[in-house]
Write a structure and sequence with these properties.
By secondary structure, the protein is α/β, with parallel strands linked by helices. The chain folds into two domains: 5-163, Molybdenum Cofactor Biosythetic Enzyme, Chain A (3-Layer(aba) Sandwich); 171-235. It is 36% helix and 24% strand. The protein has helices spanning 13-16, 24-34, 49-60, 80-88, 96-106, 149-163, 182-195, 223-235, and strands at 5-11, 38-45, 66-69, 92-94, 119-121, 125-127, 136-139, 142-145, 171-178, 200-206, 212-219. The strands form three sheets. It has a six-stranded mixed beta sheet with strand order 2-1-3-8-7-6, with helices on both faces. Strands 9-11-10 form a three-stranded antiparallel beta sheet, with helices on one face. Strand 10 (200-206) and strand 11 (212-219) form a beta hairpin. The longest helix is centred in the middle third of the chain and has 15 residues, at 149-163. It starts with a strand and ends in a 10-residue tail after the last helix.
Length: 245
């Protein structure tokens, strides 16, 4: 992977129109972070085949693993499987192991509708589903799972345990700059960005009766940039609390 961060795609008009609330960003994101990785982006997409295909084509062109939730059922409004195939540039084909699972679970009732779920992009492999045995699938570092968190989140655990070993989590060093406004800190931030252009500097204001700003660095090898940041704050006469790693 290009860095230590994942993408998350949530598919469903019901999220965009407010009928349901997204639970994947926290549920999947927490699992990713627990293994030492980060989140590059979250995208919530509608059940629009043309748009979904275009987005998957774009994300598959990146060297980044992506968890994708929703739209892999057997009803006509489930477009994810076909869009994933088009994005990957491969045909759809019936996945024999998937069919065997469906027949074992449903018998004759697997046909003619449920068996549609086994039509996958050619070259896909299965993701086990401990909730109801109906698997997801993966291709091109994209892991396609149901929209139901009770299914998708244990499936996420399986993917992470299989393919993404535990690593050291991203480091963070920061201070709370008390009673400051961001505009007063911009000159310091400009100098730090010029001095350390490849390091991740962040500024997060907290409003209210006692405003303050969380200012610091996250990433690898941040000890020296953070030390220089504190020197800048001291030289500017700013008051700050202890580092909140």
């Amino acid at each position: 992977m290009s860095d230590k961060r994942f993408g998350i795609i949530v598919i469903g008009d019901e999220i965009l129109n407010g009928r349901r609330k997204d639970r994947h960003f926290q549920g999947i994101g927490d699992r990713i972070r627990m293994r030492g990785y980060g989140i590059a982006w979250l995208r919530i997409l509608s059940d629009d085949p043309a748009y979904l295909e275009a987005e998957l084509r774009r994300t598959m062109s990146e060297d980044r693993p992506v968890f994708c939730c929703g739209g892999i059922g057997a009803t006509p409004d489930d477009h994810t499987r076909a869009c994933a195939a088009k994005a990957a540039g491969v045909p759809m084909e019936a996945h024999k192991e998937f069919i065997d699972i469906l027949v074992d679970k449903f018998g004759d009732e697997a046909y003619p509708t449920r068996v549609r779920m086994a039509d996958l992009p050619k070259g896909s492999a299965l993701i086990p589903n401990s909730y109801n045995r109906i698997p997801g699938f993966y291709i091109n570092q994209h892991y396609f799972m149901p929209g139901f968190p009770d299914m998708a989140h244990p499936m996420t655990d399986w993917v992470l345990e299989q393919f993404y070993p535990l690593i050291n989590p991203e480091k963070q060093k920061a201070v709370w700059v008390e009673g400051a406004i961001e505009s007063k800190l911009v000159p310091i931030m400009d100098r730090m960005m010029e001095k350390y252009p490849k390091h991740k500097l962040f500024s997060l204001p907290r409003l209210g009766e006692h405003p303050r700003i969380e200012l610091g660095y996250r990433g690898d090898e941040i000890d020296q940039p953070f030390k220089d940041l504190l020197d800048e704050l001291n030289a500017g006469g700013f008051t700050y609390t202890d580092s909140c790693d």
